[in-house]
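Onboarding guide, step 5: your first structure request.
Type a short instruction followed by the sequence, for example:

Predict the 3D structure of this protein.
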Amino acid sequence: MSNCESTALDTANRLYSSASRLCRRLRAARTVGGLSMAKLAVLGLLRREGVTTATALAGYLGVQPQSLTRLLAGSEGEGLIKCRQDPADKRRSLIEITSAGSRLLADEARERESCLAATMTRVLTPTEEELVRLAAGLIDRIAGAIEPFRAGPTKTEAK
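The system replies with structure tokens like these:
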């Protein structure tokens, strides 16, 4: 391994560790009684992906569709999501976020961002805040360039 590769690996390790710690700390600082992390994940995916199925949601989250049944029923009962029959395939349900779910998701995001902004203002200098802003842009570029993990060849590649 070259020195450049070693430095990149060390930097990647530090970035991953720091980002994970930041996420854990922000989750721990959440208001008691707020949305569960699972509901936040589902609502966030629905907002980003639009209308989808339970199977697709489970795939995004890396869980079995059966694991989502209670969560989806509860979220629908709270008015956060709406489920309707797929007109093209009557066996499937289409799931979408409601305006109430979108508002609640936005409120949660504002709370996290306010906590983070207040902490940054308290502990960083203006120059350090600007460096974090620049680093966030670079991290977004890196995130956009990461290829999805594939465990093995697809069916068409295996032929």
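Each response can be followed by summary notes, for example: Confidence is low (pLDDT under 50) at residues 154-159.
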